[in-house]
Amino acid sequence: MDFSKLLRVIYRLKLHTPVGWIRLMNAMRQYGTNVLALLHYASRSYGFRSALRDEEEAFTYNQLFDQSLSLAYWLRTKYGLQKKDRVAILCRNHASLVHSIFAGSGLGADLYFINIEMSKEQWQRLAAQYEFSFVIYDEEFTEFLHASCYAGRKLLSYHDKADSVYKLARTAAPEKIKLARVSAGKLMLLTGGTTGHFKTAAHKPSISQYIGPFLSIMTRLKLADYERAYIATPIFHGYGIALLFVMTAMGGEMAICRRFTAEQACAIVEQHKIEMISVVPLMLHRMLAHSKQSLNSLRCIASGGAELQPSFVELVLKQLGPILYNLYGTSEAGLNTIASPNDLSSNSATIGQKIFGIQIAVMNDNNKPMQAGGIGQLCVSHELFRKRSRKRWIPSGDMGYQDEQGLYYLSGRMDDRIVSAGENVYPLDVERVLLQHPLIEFAAVVGAADELYGQRLHAWIVPAFAADLTEELLKEWLRSRLARYQMPAQFTFVEQLPYTAVGKLDRKQLKSWKGEKDETGNTRTEKNNGA
Predict the structure, then answer these.
(1) Which of 205, 232, 260 is the last residue of a domain?
(2) Taking the complete model, does pTM exceed 0.85, yes or no?
(3) How many domains does the chain have?
């Protein structure tokens, strides 16, 4: 830990004086250990400083706290919301979502962040399994809720006439608001497996559990040096909500918007002189293609949630300078590693070094630790994880390895690994080679059944604009760069690849696509609109 950076963090949090500590202790004594207490501390420390803006409005820290407190009062008195209630939140990024998070946490409710791209069948399973007490939702999802088995209490985020989070947050309480002092409920993030069934990963706000990730993010990303951040990733995504809380603690100004477009994102960065942004790689790719000049104010780009391809890392570092950070984590274990610009400059494929306070082991199929360079499953350990689950290691489901310098690398998901003629093959390794080709913009590789080899690889290629690329030319280029067992058996050229709501490549959907030879001899598909 760099102690000079740590001191900078302490000063930025205003905890270098007794007054700062008294404010923090008073907030926790009045509201408990939850993020509403954090917002109370921020309002007392930063007051009239700009806190949050979306497309419609902006708030100071005083306004954000007062309205979140009012919302908590009405949720308790009018809707009976209380500690341990299960609240499903089905919202895009906007101010009413942020109000709901702080108010719900202040009441001690368990908050379930629902992926807005979830299917009706997936929502049905979740609603039946968790028996939600309450749902906060955007009006566009009304029909979605009505078509499900959920028949409980619910509240719109915005509405012109009916009750809504927007109206309640702005309605004064008829009496002095006093909330019971509670510990925060759980923050439930959803994880999607290859089966399409969502699982929940519980995170309970805890100073001892999150001090390591917090200090690592603050010091390695130098967040104490930035005043303005843009949360471009969905807040229901782990990185989005983490940045919301970190910036609140520092008194930073945050920008959010309901839907991501490259044009709007570049305009937000340029207009508000954004210094730090959270993105998934696909977002950054589109922003860079739209307007590199609009991104001149950025000093920190935190990329996470999806694989950051080495060829794209090199492009970003060349065009924007040493401001790119690669964050790797899982919904279950949280943040695990951070790659700094220096790490990425020396090796663009790395996910960096482990964060403060956790251990990472690379395990073989027999759950035995491997030496440096050996590919196995990345497993994470933390003292509080062990106490909670009584397991020493949390498996990530990701394959990877560690080099002699302590840097970690990914080799893809365990589910993506195939065995071809007895050889372990990792599609991610092949994707990285494909993306080095100057005429390829995007590439994805998945496994497919094969009668002779057991499994072979199928490569899906998005050529660069107007590129004259054929399967035979590509195979010839690959022969000197791949081992024979790594060579894809099939290549399919498409206009777009499918992505999930958080910008991850949707391999499950990709495996359902079928390719057929066209008149040029190249394999193409009609399923080219899945972005």
Answers:
(1) 205
(2) yes
(3) 2
